[in-house]
Amino acid sequence: MTNQKPIRKDRVALVVVALLAAILIPVLLSSSPGADEDPGNGLVVSDGGGIAGVSATTDPTPEVNPYEILSHTITEGDTLESIARALGVGVANLVASNDLDSGQSLTPGDTIRVPRTGFLYRISSGETLSDIAASYEVTVAEIASANNIPDPGQILAGTLIIVPGDPQVAPSTTVANATPSGSPSFSWPVTGEVVSEFGYRTHPILGTWERHNGIDIDVPEGTIVTAAASGTVFNIDNDPDGIGLAVYLAHTDNFYTVYGHLSQIQVQPGDPISAGQQIALSGNTGLSNGPHLHFEIRKTPEFPIDPLLYLP
Ligand SMILES: [Zn+2]
């Protein structure tokens, strides 16, 4: 038994050498050039995750609405090219959005509008979103998303929408033939700065990224609110978790307007209303971050559209 100890020591030494070899050989192999798939290297890369973290904080995602409507008031000397360059859009998008290929000329004082992405298109009678999508090589889902359309089957003639595509894909006759007939002529319900536009935004109170169904016009509490067009009072409502005290007016051609965060309502459901008639006083009711008028234009009672496309 006594001479077994050296043997055992030798064996232990051999085992240790074998184990070292088993450990060292793969390590040596892995440190050779080209050993990209070694998990050790993966660990080194993931340690460098701090770098990715830094680059993420130095590169915040800007919350720019790609479908924001840009506008420009024509002044002497403007050309389509100069306006397109100033707004950062294509000339064709500008032409299509403002029916300028139907022979209309630019008059100083006129306001022209174009979305940051795509172009404006007025839906003709009998046309579906699928027709439009096919014409301009975009998907129905893309159009629905660009316009916050909850139900792509519920789209009506006369509505202006953003087509997130290239207007030159389809023959321009479709745009030239579309006439803005039918919609009532809307006026501003109050005079003030638009502090929040239609479309997706970070909610001023909830902090969530969500759809804004109208525009917010900055006016002090108690400002006289007038009807944006003639019609009848469709509904009055008080939603403390939404637009507070609100008036809903019905107009011709299935258009509706909504006036929210009011302090006082001065009409009753069913009342006939003339354009410009006083209907309420503005306020700060409901989920509001300060006195302003929330104003919507809808096509059908359920489908909000961008009021800035219709207001003068
Ligand atoms: Zn609002």
Write a structural description.
With 312 residues, this protein is an alpha+beta fold. The protein has 2 domains: 69-177, LysM domain (Membrane-bound Lytic Murein Transglycosylase D, Chain A), CATH 3.10.350.10; 193-309, Glucose Permease (Domain IIA) (Distorted Sandwich). It contains 8 helices and 16 strands. The protein has helices spanning 4-30, 39-47, 49-58, 80-87, 91-97, 129-135, 140-146, 173-177; strands spanning 69-73, 111-115, 119-122, 160-163, 193-196, 199-202, 209-212, 215-218, 224-226, 231-239, 244-250, 255-265, 272-273, 278-282, 293-299, 303-305. The strands form 4 sheets. Strands 5, 8, 9, 10, 11, 12, 13, 14, 15 and 16 form a 10-stranded antiparallel beta sheet that branches. The protein has a two-stranded antiparallel sheet with strand order 1-2. It has a two-stranded antiparallel sheet with strand order 3-4. The protein starts with a helix and ends in a 7-residue tail after the last strand. Mean pLDDT is 77; it is low at 1-7, 12-17, 23-60 and 171-181. Bound molecules: zinc ion. The site of zinc ion (ZN) has 5 residues, from loops.
